[in-house]
Amino acid sequence: MPSALPDGEPMPEDGALPASALDGAASRPLGFYLHVPYCATRCGYCDFNTYTATELRGSGGVLASRDNYAQTLADEVRLARKVLGDDPRPVRTVFVGGGTPTLLAARDLVAMLAAVRDEFGLADDAEITTEANPESVDEAYLSELREGGFNRVSFGMQSAKQHVLKVLDRTHTPGRPEACVAEARAAGFEHVNLDLIYGTPGETDDDWRATLDAAIGAGPDHVSAYALIVEEGTQLARRIRRGEVPMTDDDVHADRYLIADEVLGNAGFSWYEVSNWATSDSGRCLHNELYWRGADWWGAGPGAHSHVGGVRWWNVKHPGAYAGALAGGGSPGAGREVLSAEDRRVERILLELRLREGCPLSLLREAGLAASVRARDEGLLDAGPYAEGRAVLTLRGRLLADAVVRDLVD
């Protein structure tokens, strides 16, 4: 089941933000994340805020239905306009995620995008992305999205091997994601991503290399590769606990990461974030960079998180409760927190260190600076950028990124 929401102070009923949240807003990019909380089935490893038809049956009634979801989400976009007032910024990025956004009709996703465009306007070079399940799209569907303004699509490939997909409870067949890339290109998409997962129980090094080769051969300009994380409460965690499949292994994860960086690098992909590679700077995911660089984004949809000017908030999780709050004229926000200057400093280190450009050494306190010297001397931070005042992870540092970050935030 979906993970729990964080703790925080109550969100005002009208969703109002402290005046300080909009101070200097004109200098920060603004993005929108639009969450679609529906899936045909729940994958065994997933703890995202998603719901199958069975899970929603009798819970929330018509308000939880995906049939009118686009209109409901548009209500929150209009609420965002009220809360942000006369904020003049056009939207730089829109990212539709889930769940499985492509369970909705293409016209619904286009209508959700239109709501953002109508209320805020889009930057001339706006990046407009949707996630897509390989089994729920075809070229006609993708063409409708492209004509409606989408210019980037991200397909969940995970693996090219059937036995790995089976462990993950993925329903698409090997080869289908690669075909989707060709269909997206034919539909006119400039940017295409494939999401991969490594370290699944039963996967071998050869399986992983075959997956990387298949992904590269499909011709995307972006690949995301994530280590499988076994979350408590998921079906996969229960299977591991029962001994049906082995637990994931950190050493295996490290080996698979090194393979990914080597194979992708040899194919012309460069890392720009610990888990992301692109064939050029124009292929980088600008929306995710808003997160990593502490910009502003409004997350619309059940369980979606937002951040504007150091204020972070999150919506109620259930689609019925979400729709009910909006139907009643209020905010669907469940809670919020106002970040202190120290919170924001720490978050900058946590997030920016993951990027190829790294983070400024000026963000570090005395203990963190001393730790950074040790990390440089141990080959975890690149000596070249370090001499210029930036902490940038080496390949070995990327393998140990969490440990490096823990030391630097002191």
From TrEMBL:
UniProtKB keywords: 4Fe-4S, Chaperone, Cytoplasm, Heme, Iron, Iron-sulfur, Metal-binding, S-adenosyl-L-methionine
InterPro entries: Coproporphyrinogen-III_oxidase (IPR034505), Elp3/MiaA/NifB-like_rSAM (IPR006638), HemW-like (IPR004559), rSAM (IPR007197), rSAM_horseshoe (IPR023404), rSAM_sf (IPR058240)
Chain segments carrying region Disordered: 1-20
Residue ranges occupied by any Radical SAM core domain in the UniProt entry: 24-270
GO MF term (any one): coproporphyrinogen oxidase activity
GO CC annotations, alphabetized: cytoplasm
Record Pfam families: Radical_SAM
Location within or outside the cell: Cytoplasm
GO terms under biological process: porphyrin-containing compound biosynthetic process
Main location group: cytoplasm
Family: Belongs to the anaerobic coproporphyrinogen-III oxidase family. HemW subfamily.
UniProt function note: Probably acts as a heme chaperone, transferring heme to an unknown acceptor. Binds one molecule of heme per monomer, possibly covalently. Binds 1 [4Fe-4S] cluster. The cluster is coordinated with 3 cysteines and an exchangeable S-adenosyl-L-methionine.
Protein name as it appears in the record: Heme chaperone HemW
